[in-house]
TrEMBL record, chains A, B:
SUPFAM superfamilies: GHMP Kinase, C-terminal domain (SSF55060), Ribosomal protein S5 domain 2-like (SSF54211). The keyword Lipid metabolism applies. GO terms for cellular component: cytosol. It comes from Companilactobacillus pabuli. Pfam families: MDD_C (PF18376), MVD-like_N (PF22700). Its EC number is 4.1.1.33. Belongs to the diphosphomevalonate decarboxylase family. One of its GO terms (molecular function) is diphosphomevalonate decarboxylase activity. InterPro entries: GHMP_kinase_C_sf (IPR036554), Mev_decarb (IPR005935), Mev_diP_decarb (IPR029765), MVD-like_N (IPR053859), Mvd1_C (IPR041431), Ribosomal_Su5_D2-typ_SF (IPR020568), Ribsml_uS5_D2-typ_fold_subgr (IPR014721). Residues 7-161 form the Diphosphomevalonate decarboxylase-like N-terminal domain. The gene is mvaD. Keywords: ATP-binding, Lipid biosynthesis, Lipid metabolism, Lyase, Nucleotide-binding. This is diphosphomevalonate decarboxylase. Residues 177-308 form the Mvd1 C-terminal domain.
Length: 321, 321
């Protein structure tokens, strides 16, 4: 009986921003994330006697254009593990757009897990992380729970995630603040590429990440919440400084993003624990403690009418159900 | 008969951001500005038989706290030129806060001119620029009209502005968009200091300015408006990337600043000439042509209700009236 693979989304505290190798999705730097418990993707793969993959997402059959990225990925997987079969892929995505998280991390991690399961590849987690990375860089980290580091590596075999602490006994929780506004978006792939090619600050970013990874790992080991918050916020803002200094300049910030950053500063001035992290979009994730999250959520919701907030806690790695 | 010195404000197209020497106000990099015609400061200095300077601003006598920076500056001037007299300083500032420009550039340039006049120091413009720089770095540039470069130098005598083209025959005009919102402000002095000390990108900024100064001077010589706009916008955004990447991160942007940046992109997509430059505050200055400025102003005013816009053209250097 083939089982369904379930993988959770993750939030990068030290960001992945820039590919050294587009084809293999090898990054310029390591990155470090926290796997979350609330948002996940369930994927079941079964081999079929067909010369084309059949893919359904949330019970809807995807057409050629919609399924192209997944079919290309399956071609890569077939090549990597030297087999020919095609698949029926049934994916259910429990990462609502309205929660402000990208679904590619949990999506490609679950897909890698599903192929591993149905083809009985018996991959260990390192191999699974490599397989997931070939779909989406950040998916490499969703193989593990808790704090996870993705080692940049230098080729397909050396670029994979490792667990830092899968079940950390640490009082962190995340508030996702979603801005109810649709703006034209620069995809993270394009945004990364423009930053690498044109930001005069990119070389300094590579050096920065290397030192902030070391610092945050030390802070995690020491359960130093404030340090974790400070490093995460600084790293995220520095990533956004790369987009601002790209040529031409661009930003993922919406007006409301600046407002939320201002509110987080106000909250912190009241002695309440709250630090910002922001991915390639206008939404803000606020790193909180179990003590602070209620007050942070209330404050944000009182000050801003056009946002939705969602709470997520530390989650675990890929599982089969 | 002692004359009044009149100096105009200027807008930096290549920003001054970071002091190598605080006392002497020596910058880390050159900067390049455009002197404007609409906003200026008139200052009359007369020697008085008193052991303290008496300073009035817009006919109001300044108290000790309010006049401290000016009195300290006058002490520096007395030391530089080895004299003892104190002054009555009458300053009229025609740089309304509501126009979104800092008055320190025109203010200290006019004050330097007024002392030169009343003490009959017969300073040439280079010496006058050095004298103004000792009051406020950007004042060094307000001695000249048109495009002006401030050479960073390495000591008091070598750090002064030079004219690039005092009366450029070039179709540029500026729209200042002032956000009607008072937010707690990080002064530019503190903002610079934090950026220099804590932004991991500062060393790359120094290199960037050096190449953008060369490029914009070439563009000015060739009257290449688009290049001037592009370089100016990129340089300004890169300066703001330094604040975002400072540790702790900060920004001069207000929510409306992001909105105006978005609108400028929309305007440009319609084929209308408009580029942004932003100083140490939330207001945006839009670099326009005589052809585009009316449409830019209308577009901004239609989209945003809570802003004030002001037009300024290319202005000339210090004069005596």
């Amino acid at each position: 009986m083939t089982r369904t693979a379930r993988a959770y989304t993750n939030i990068a505290l030290i960001k992945y921003w820039g590919k050294k190798n587009k084809q293999l999705k090898l990054p310029y730097t390591n990155s470090l994330s926290l796997t979350l418990d609330r948002f996940y993707t369930d994927t079941l793969a079964t081999t079929i006697d067909n010369d084309k993959d059949i893919i359904t997402l949330n019970d809807q059959l995807l057409n050629d254009a919609e399924s192209k990225r997944i079919r290309n990925y399956l071609d890569t997987v077939r090549q990597m593990y030297s087999f020919d079969e095609h698949f029926q892929i049934k994916t259910t995505n429990h990462v609502p757009t309205s929660a402000g998280f990208a679904s590619s991390a949990s999506g490609f991690a679950a897909l890698a897990g599903a192929i591993n399961e149905t083809k009985q590849l018996n991959l260990d987690k390192k191999q699974l992380s490599i397989l997931a990375r070939n779909g989406s860089g950040s998916a490499s980290r969703s193989i593990y729970g808790g704090f996870v580091e993705w080692n940049a590596g230098f080729d397909n075999e050396s670029s994979f995630a490792v667990p830092i602490d899968e079940t950390p006994d640490i009082d962190l929780t995340l508030l996702s603040v979603v801005i109810n506004q649709h703006s034209k978006k620069v995809s993270s792939t394009v945004g990364m590429e423009n930053s690498v090619k044109t930001s005069p600050f990119y070389s300094n970013w590579v050096t920065l990440v290397s030192s902030e990874i070391k610092e945050i790992k030390q802070a995690i080991a020491q359960k130093d919440l404030q340090k974790i918050g400070e490093i995460s916020e600084h790293n995220a803002m520095s990533m956004h400084a790369l987009t601002l200094s790209a040529n031409p300049s661009f930003t993922y910030f919406a007006p409301e993003t600046i407002r939320i950053i201002q509110l987080i500063k106000e909250i912190r001035q009241k002695g309440i624990f709250a630090y910002a992290t922001i991915d390639a979009g206008p939404n803000v994730k606020i790193i909180c403690t179990k003590e602070s999250i209620q007050r942070v959520q209330t404050y944000i919701e009182q000050q801003l009418s056009n946002v939705t907030t969602v709470v997520a806690n530390i989650g675990h790695g890929i599982e089969y159900i």
